[in-house]
Structures are given as structure tokens and as C-alpha cells.
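Internal QA ticket QA-208
Title: Verify multi-chain structure generation after dependency bump
Assignee: T.L.

Test input:
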Amino acid sequence: MSYSYEYPRAALTVDCVVFGLDDDDLKVLLIQRDLPPFEGRWALPGGFVRLDESLEESARRELREETGIENVYLEQLYTIGEIDRDPRERVVTVTYYALVKLTDHQVQAATDARNAAWFAVDDVPALAFDHAKILEMAHERLRGKVRYQPIGFELLPAKFTLRQIQHLYEVVLDRPLDKRNFRKKILSMDILVELDEVETDVAHRAARLYKFDRRKYQRLTKQGFNFEI
Amino acid sequence: MSYSYEYPRAALTVDCVVFGLDDDDLKVLLIQRDLPPFEGRWALPGGFVRLDESLEESARRELREETGIENVYLEQLYTIGEIDRDPRERVVTVTYYALVKLTDHQVQAATDARNAAWFAVDDVPALAFDHAKILEMAHERLRGKVRYQPIGFELLPAKFTLRQIQHLYEVVLDRPLDKRNFRKKILSMDILVELDEVETDVAHRAARLYKFDRRKYQRLTKQGFNFEI
DNA sequence: CCAAAAGTGTTTCACGTACACCCATGC
DNA sequence: GCATGGGTGTACGTGAAACACTTTTGG
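Actual output:
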């Protein structure tokens, strides 16, 4: 290549913060490193970007290879290029965060034999590299974005109760919400479809199930509607 | 280095969208390329990331070298790594946007002889690479962020009139605002200091000058205050 | 029949919005 | 004295927030 650049090059990686939600907490999916540096430490799933794939493709491939997760909501977060963030050499990492339905990905898959596990976001072990900082940024982004974009549904099963959505927002925003006001608000947006089904296997009155109507949401958005919790 | 990675590596660049504001428009600073590809085309200032500087340092250095601009508000925007975005080879670019006070940077400086000029954001020439897309993203980010963070002041001189702030928001948000309501709102936030000065050289009653009180803003923020226009 | 959560309306208050005139200044 | 923008207050309506009891169901 006559016109290729002569500069020495940084290595380029992607790292993913995968969030999931259960009945108690917001969780994050970590993998345990089996190589130095930080051997044995928990870390975000991620790896090197190949020349024949875009950044997002790279992130999705790493997620698949390291955790078995596919077809999830994925959004770029931030790119970190501090000089000494990797003890080996200059490594720039493009970070992403993903939202998954824990019910669909309950058991941690680890196709390449690495250990993977879910941790409560507020109770993670010491992480490799600057991954704690990345997790913090992702958490902050989620907290901010969930209020203005209907991305919370990515953390819920396809059919959910109003109680589940409210719980989602209470966990992510870390404050209690008023039940009546919350229901009024979310229903008045007219982006949920009430199903002819109720939840099962509960030891009390079963709640109605709803699903998110993405088409309706997109139609409303075009007309100037803005989602907000 | 025994533990360096063997993967072939993408080139890594930074590109900056520099916004400025004058009496008419929101402007963007472009430079004219003097090398192929896209020789002669206008493009965003930017260049290759060196191994001994962080990404932000790289962006600031390129801004200084190509446009003479220093000490400005700079924020990372997005990282683009589509495979074919550069015709030569794989180039990943970390994009930034900057907000400058046009009064301080009126004349385009170009220390390395390249031509630099301000263009109205809504009337830019054809740009090199995918820079039009980057500009579009930056514009959208600015429009969104200016409403929730007091970054608009970065586009104004240190001392400004209420009319100037209102004009800023009208230009960036692209809609007219009510004068009385705007004044009520911005003053009620209690983040401006009223100065004992008025503007000069105007052919009508001179307006009072104000400045943004960053310390007060930060204090209020800690107490739960949220800026919003 | 008891425990547990589902489901449901009204009142109050703050804030956003709409709107028009007089004043000060420079030319 | 005239043109230009500076500066100011009120009324109205919408939406956020506070708040408690009855109903349904499973065990």
C-alpha cells in the first residue's frame, strides 16, 4: 500500500458492559480472565477488533464467543485511550453497553471455557484494567438514558406486568416511585398493549400482562412525542 | 515485547467538529485538504493518534496544529469504525466536538498552511470521507445536550446579554423562544451574575451584561439542581 | 380467612405558556 | 422624534405529586 501510514499503531479492543435485571437487582455479566495480566480477575467481556469487522460487529462477536449472548440491544458508550491503561502496551478500547432479558440468558454460557457470571452492579469484585470505571460510566449512561428512551423494555421479558416496569425504574433510578402515578403515566403514553393474559404461578392476585408496542412508539415519535419517565 | 498482540491493526485518528456562534448562525470550522484522498475538499480538522498521547490530547493537538485553537470545551462524540470509510485502508476515528467563543477565534488560524474557514452548519460544502455524517451527529448531540447542560455559555463571550443567550438557544434549537419566559427561566436558575456593565456600540438602549457563575452552578448541582431550558 | 399484591381517582400546587406595552438610547 | 431593541407582570391551563382503600387470588 503506497499510501499507508507510517505511525506506530495502538491496539484496538472492544469491551462490553452487559446489564440484566432480576427480581432484586441490576446485574452485570463478567468473565474471569484466564491469562495474564490480571489472570483470575473478573473483567468485562471484550477483545481485539479485527480488520474485517466493524466495531459493533466486533462487540457482538466477542459477546457471542465469550458469553453466548446474541441479538441484544447494544449501544456504543465511550472510547478510552489513556496511555497506561493496559500494562502491556498502548490499547485503545471502544466500550459498549448491552441490555439483555435475563430470563432469556439466565444461565451464563461460556463457549470458550471461560467462567462467566452475573453480579449485582452494586457489589462487583475488583475488576481488571480500568473496567470498574467503564462499568461506572455505563451505569450512569443507563440511568440517564432510561428516562428519555424506552430502552428499559430491553431488560424485561416480552410480556411483563406494570409492576415489573415500575420495579425496573425503581432499581435503575434508585428511588421509589408512586404506583398510581407511575401507572397513569406509562399507560397515558399509549405505547403499551394490554394483553388478554395474566401472570401465572404467583401466590396472590395475578397481574395483567402488557407488551411494548414499538411500532406505535415510532409512529408517535415521528409526531413529536417524547418518552419520559 | 513478548506479549504484544499479533493482530494486524487499524489506523486510529481523531476528528473534531468545532462549533462557533455569530449573530446569524451556528458555524463549523473546516479545513481544506491538501493531500489525496479528497484533495481540495473541505474536511473536519483531525489526524493520527500518536502512541504517547491520550485521545483527548491528540484531539487538542490536532486542533492547535490545524486551526490554532486552544483551551476550548471539548467532548468525545462517537467512534466510527466502518470497514470502508477510508478508501486507503482501515481507519477508525474517535470523533470529538468543541465549542468555541467566535469572538476569541474570529480569524481562522492555520499554522500548517492549510486553509481553514467557518461555514454555516446548514450550508456546508461537500465534505471528505464520512465527515458529513459526523457533523450531523455532532449537531444532534449539541441540540440535545444544550438543553440539559450549561454548555451554551462556551459559545458566548465571557460577558453577554440575555438577548445573546436567547439567540443562542433559538439558533441551536431552531425555534423561537418567548422573551419574557426565557428571561424568567434563565434568571430563576440563579446561575448568572448581573454585572455593573452594559453592552457598548449599539444603536439603541444598551442591554445589561451578565456572566455565567460556574461555581454557583456546581454548588447548586450538588444540591440536586438540574439545568434545563 | 388471611396474606399479598392488583387495581383505581381526586385534590393540590408548581410550572410552562401565551401575551402587549412603556422605556431608554443613539442617530 | 423616530427607530430599535430592553425590560417587565399576569392569567390560564396542564401536568406532577401526594395520598388510601377495595378487590382478587392462592394457600
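Spot checks passed. Chain B is about 25% helix and 25% strand.
Status: verified.
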